[in-house]
Each structure stands twice: as C-alpha cells, then as structure tokens.
Amino acid sequence: MALPAQLRPIQHYLRTAQEHEKRDPVVTYYCRLYAMQTGMKLDSKTPECRKFLVKLMDQLESMKKELSDNESITQEVVGNAHIENYALKLFMYADNEDRGERFHKNMIKSFYTSSLLLDVLSVFGELSEENIQHRKYARWKATYIHNCLKNGETPQPGPAAMEGDEEADEFGAEGFSGQAFSHGGSFRADPPSQDQSLGPGPASEIGFAPGPGPVPMDPPTTNYNNIQIPPGAHAPANSPAELPHPSGGVHLTPEDFTRAQKFCKYAGSALQYEDVGTAIQNLQKALKLLTTGKE
Length: 295
Prior knowledge:
By secondary structure, the protein is an all-alpha fold. It has helices spanning 11-19, 25-42, 47-66, 71-74, 76-99, 105-120, 129-150, 165-169, 202-206, 254-272, 276-292.
C-alpha cells in the first residue's frame, strides 16, 4: 500500500523497519510503533491515511504476538536498552569511520539510521540530553558528508563547528527528502568480505563494510556548538571509574531501586552485543546509586 503524501515524514522509519525485518525484528517493531504514533499526529482523519495507519496497527499486533516471548517487546526497559544500544553501535561505527577519514555511503547511512533510531527512542519517554546531542550530531554529519561527496569536496573528519544551529535543526523526519534515501537503492550496503568482518554487534549484522584495519576509538575532546559526545560512547573504559566506598545508612527510595535495576538491564543488553564499555558504564552507575543514593 502506497504511503499517503500527508504521512511522508514517516517514510524513513518505515524503510528502516523493512530493512531490519530479518536482521532484528525488535528494531522493526519499534520503528513501526514510532511511525504509527507519529502518523496518528500527522493525519488520522483522511480516509487514505486512516486506512494506512490501521494496516500498520495490524502489522504491529501481529508482530507482538509473534514476539510474545521476546523480553525486548514485553518489557519496555529492555526494549529501550536494545534500541539505544543498537543506535549507539551504528553511531560508533560511523564516527570511527569518519575519524579515520574513510568517507563512504555506508557510514553516511549509519549516521542517519542512528539518528532515526534515537528518534524512535521517544516511544519510551523523553530522550536524555546525551541522546539528543548524539541525534543532532549524527544527522548533521550525515548531511554534511553526503553533500561534500556529492559536490566532490573532502569532508573534514571528526567534530567541527556546525554552520549554525538552524542547519542542524532543519533535518526533520524527512531527512534527506529525495536526495539520498528517496528509494534506498543507492545506499544499500555491500556485505563485508570475510576478512573485513566488524565482529559482533548491529553494524556487522547490517552488513556495513568497514574500511581497512582497526580504528583507534579515541574519545572526542572538541565541542561542536556545545555538543559533546561523552567518552563512554566511543571507547570501553580501561579501568572502572573510582567509586565511592559504601557508607552505612544510605537511604534508598523505591525509585532508586527501579533506576538501579534499569542500569543493570541496560548492562545486560549491552553484553548481548559484547559491548563491554557500555556494560561497565551502566554497572558503575548502578553501583554508585546503591552506595551513595545519588546518580
């Protein structure tokens, strides 16, 4: 069924959902859920839009039944961690390619898909400031590198001053609207050769071919319009951060226990992707909260 013009802003989320149907049905489910929720706000009254959205709801119901034994669907906190880890894996892959000055269509698509999945995270509630920054940077980088390659220019690697916040904010849900992703074909990733495997994690599952050789994952130190990506997003910690010694008589509220439990689930989800850095980071947060009562 063709996408009605009024619902065009959700097309990239639906395409991302379709691309992941076999690779990661959890990503597919939440992309469709976000598209449906956004579509309802855009136009739920016009007959063709209503018909399209009802079909989308049916797809979601069907997926929910099929995935009824999947914790990422039945438990929001696990689903949230799954999508967030996936988005940040794509971001790290693209960011490392960028810093290694390997500019290509796969890394552009990785940046852009990462920004879409960070949008999708809003189905679980408000985005953290950190994820808002990642999303803005990823969307700006994708457009900047795409335009450089299109115009035959060499992009500047790593963080750089954005040309005003207006440019970064112009990337709405339509993103590249007709330039890069209108049909998806020109941005399809080639499967990596055996000796180029990215190893475990979403980037390799999607089949993004990495550039030659390992890329050192140095944390950024530069601000780009006050947007700073935390070091933990790029490199696993070499040693656990110093934690305060447990002090007796710390008063923990039920909310503190819920938050600590959430950090532990995030860590568990990160370990599924063998993402040690994110796992350590979340376990440290849980430990600090339990020992001091503060995050």
